């Protein structure tokens, strides 16, 4: 799974790129959109992107400025610039940065798709290099710390003794602050050999994707679960952490061939409380594992076993915001879950892609407005979330086989016929 962001101030260009990438990318991806570099900056604060496809010339902030901001925090993010300009100074600045490509908007679609595949190949090579270089170091670190962590989780070691052991073994836990508890089932790696490979691979990818601004400690629990203590700054919100976990799952899937799921407490808890909360988290872990791999779910440790009807909440939010922002980012912020979790859970529970469901709801509402009102088609399009009337007409025709105007005319003809029939029956 890769995260891609499209940035352009021209909405038709964004729509074209979104359709192109949705239809023709040969790998699974979450695709996000922004209509300015300023809007994009807000999104990249919450979500880590592998690839950003951006225009250069935009109001208020240019694509070059966006690139510099992104690369300050994530220098390995690949940037692909699309522009109608061919001025040398822009090309020169773009190619002087690592992980940057420059394309003209006039080039064929295949050129953009090839550029994205080139970026993906570069990302994969970097991740493989990290796994290979750090394998032995991380294995020794895990073997040295596993026993004391497992004994603490099994209530065998009191907190004060565990603190001393953690200090001696350089376990980076801050006992003065709370930690998120995250649990992952590793039943897929049954043999000891495969299990150790899984433990080391997970730890390396976790440190790469989660480490840095977040502190992470990994424990092997009963040869069946991985337990993570995740510590963050007080102002770090949960969906930022789950976004990092989602990237961890993507890395594990791509490099280790495992489809795993993760449970994480919705709030950080005192470290001494983690052994007591862990059994409830494992119980919830078993429940979401039945949905399938690749799921990240929040767990309320104060109400173990309580299940929220997230699907109903998603549907209600969509129904109430058909004319507004129904991007995955907007929905996840409103419901306080990470975007990938919402997308995957909705698909697992309903069998429908979330974007397809949103378009379906918008088209149903559009048909209702066309039938029951005399509002112009462009006004109907706006009310159901389509800023571009031409694009709305195209999507409507794909669904109904006729244009919105033809649909209105057919409804009018049908109403006239029904009225005439009624008059004939009544003898009026």
Which stretches are low in confidence, meaning pLDDT under 50 for 5 or more residues running? 304-308
Number of helical regions: 16
Biggest pleated sheet:
5 strands, parallel
Would you count the extended β strands for me? 10
In terms of DSSP E residues, the strand content is 5-15%
* Gross geometry: globular
Task: Please describe the structure with a list of short key phrases separated by commas or semicolons.
alpha/beta, Rossmann fold, Alpha-Beta Plaits, Arc Repressor Mutant, subunit A, 10 strands
Give a short overview.
The protein is an alpha/beta fold and 428 residues long. The protein has 16 helices and ten strands.
Please give the structural blueprint:
Blueprint: E1 2-7, H1 11-24, E2 29-34, H2 37-46, E3 51-55, H3 63-73, E4 78-83, H4 88-95, E5 100-104, H5 109-153, H6 159-168, E6 180-185, H7 192-209, E7 215-221, E8 225-231, H8 238-256, E9 262-265, H9 274-289, E10 296-299, H10 310-320, H11 328-335, H12 339-350, H13 354-372, H14 377-383, H15 389-400, H16 404-426
Parallel strand pairs: 1-2, 1-3, 3-4, 4-5, 9-10
Antiparallel strand pairs: 6-8, 6-9, 7-8
